[in-house]
Each structure stands twice: as structure tokens, then as C-alpha cells.
Predict the structure.
Amino acid sequence: MTDKGARDKWEFYQDHNAKHHKWRWRRTAPNGRIVGASTQGYSEKEECIENAERNGYVKSNDHA
């Protein structure tokens, strides 16, 4: 079994749109390249985390 992506960094942040602040995520590889990101903003952080989990994020390996 491989640990591909196990060292990737996951970030959860709010965008800085003037009208609203939506939650988004991004996944960055150890070499600094962004290898994944949310395609939409979420009004609730938990919804954002759930979307990240569907894209490979494991809650127990990182903190949000």
C-alpha cells in the first residue's frame, strides 16, 4: 500500500470576497505545488471539511 499524498498539507480558510466570506480548502504537496482545491465556497466550515474528505482529506491526520 502507498502513502501517496500522506505528507500533503491541507488548509481551510475563508476567502476575502467583499460581500461574503466563504470557507474553502486547498491541498499542497511537499514541493509547494497546489494539487487540489475546493471549486466552490461553503458558508459553513464543516461543509467545507466534508467536501475535503470526499477528496482525500483524513480528519485524524491533521487539524482544521
In short: The domain at 9-58 is CATH 3.30.160.160 (Double Stranded RNA Binding Domain). The radius of gyration is 12 Å. The chain is about 15% helix and 25% strand.
